UniProtKB/TrEMBL annotation:
PANTHER family: HTH-TYPE TRANSCRIPTIONAL ACTIVATOR TTDR-RELATED, HTH-TYPE TRANSCRIPTIONAL REGULATOR. Keywords: DNA-binding, Transcription, Transcription regulation. Residues 12-67 form the HTH lysR-type domain. InterPro entries: LysR-type_TF_proteobact-type, LysR_HTH_N, LysR_subst-bd, WH-like_DNA-bd_sf, WH_DNA-bd_sf. It comes from Leisingera daeponensis. It comes from the Bacteria. It holds the Pfam family LysR_substrate. Belongs to the LysR transcriptional regulatory family. This is LysR family transcriptional regulator.
Length: 308
């Protein structure tokens, strides 16, 4: 029987955070385990409480205790992760096949890889490509994978890498939004706070709205306590519907821009040269499936012609 996961769409990252917070009964210890800030953990919990329309922790001064429903959800997440760990071990123990495994984030898979996937498969012939998608790249043992599209290659300095996408950040909106708020073309800072859509950039180092205004040399607007999207495809869909303006990145917003679904509202700024790198294990031979995968990535952008 086919099952739908729509009720939890957009909440998967927050559920993982909830499991750790319930296990520790502490937001600060959860933040330490996840490598996140405590405010980021709190935002994930608040997101879940808003979607479930109920509190998940009882707060008493500086101490918290999970509610019965929070414990129930956390137990379900832990059980699911246990099944995933078991399946992962079984896959690793399976005999080698003519395939390569690639890890990347949801947003990268949805906006960059999927439009090119047919071309990738054709270039690899009969080689199968397994794509592991997660916005928690820090939770994956990348040493077990053939290649990964990462933000920071310094995490595994022993593995070679090359740049894939330049780091360029710019505001985007739908054509309908610009018709309704023509002043946005001249002065983004004057827009109401609730029209700025925020994305939880986690540990990626990607610019937030505050970072973009700072890099662009523009006055900071009042953002208030705006909720954050924990998966970029959901934010992009909200922008398409004209619900507000979001930040776009070169390589991630390219297709939506080319189709006219969204428009650029301001200048592109950069705080570093590149936003994505392809990091990989050393191929066994020049004719290997992994080398074919890497050659395909190198052909996708002029950046790949200047491999360090």
């Amino acid at each position: 029987m086919q099952r739908s996961i729509r009720p939890t769409s957009g909440s998967l990252n927050s559920l993982l955070v909830l499991e750790v917070a319930v296990r520790h009964a502490s937001l600060s210890r959860a933040a330490a385990e996840l490598g996140m800030s405590q405010p980021a953990v709190s935002r994930h919990i608040s997101t879940l409480e808003g979607r479930l329309r109920q509190p998940l922790f009882e707060r008493n001064n500086n101490r918290i205790a999970p509610t019965a429903n929070a414990t129930r959800l956390a137990d379900a997440v832990a059980l699911g992760l246990g099944h995933v760990d078991q399946a992962w071990s079984e896959v690793l123990a399976a005999p080698e096949t003519d395939e390569v495994t690639l890890a990347c984030t949801f947003g990268f898979a949805d906006q960059w890889l999927m439009p090119r996937y047919s071309d990738l498969r054709a270039s690899l012939g009969g080689t199968r490509v397994r794509v592991v998608t997660t916005d928690q790249l820090g939770d994956i043992d990348l040493s077990r994978l053939d290649a990964a599209v990462v933000w920071d290659p310094a995490r595994m300095p022993e593995r070679p890498y090359f740049p894939l996408v330049p780091a360029e950040t710019f505001p985007i909106c739908s054509p309908g939004f610009l018709e309704a708020y023509p002043e946005a073309a001249e002065n983004l800072s004057a827009l109401p706070p609730n029209l700025f859509l925020h994305f939880d950039t986690g540990t990626s180092g990607f610019l937030t709205w505050r970072g973009w205004f700072e890099q662009a040399g523009l006055p900071q607007p009042r953002f208030g306590k705006a909720p954050e999207f924990d998966a970029y495809p959901f934010l992009l869909q909200s922008v398409r519907r004209g619900e507000g303006i979001g930040l776009g990145w070169t390589g991630i917003a390219d297709n939506a821009l080319a189709c006219g679904e969204v428009l650029r509202l301001g200048p592109a700024v950069s705080d570093r040269p590149y936003s994505y790198f392809v990091q990989h294990r050393a191929p066994a031979a020049s004719s290997s499936a992994l080398e074919q995968l890497l050659d395909w990535f190198r052909c996708q952008s002029p950046l790949l012609q200047s491999q360090p």
